[in-house]
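Write out the 3D structure for:
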Amino acid sequence: MRATAFAFTTNFSRWFAAAGTFLIGYGIHAAGSLTLPLSLTAVVFVLAMGLVRLAPEIRGEALPD
C-alpha cells in the first residue's frame, strides 16, 4: 500500500508539473511577454509558505504505526 501511494503521488505531481509547463507557455503566448505569467508562478510558492505554518511539528515524537 505504501509503495502504491508513493507511486501515485509521484506520478500525479509529474502530470501536474507537465500541465503547469503548458499553462505557462500558453500564458506567455496570451500575454505576449514573460513578465506576468512567470510572476504569477510565484503565487503558488507564497501560498505554500503560508500553508506550511499549519503543519504540526513532530520533532522528537514517534512516528505512527
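The chain is about 70% helix and 0% strand.
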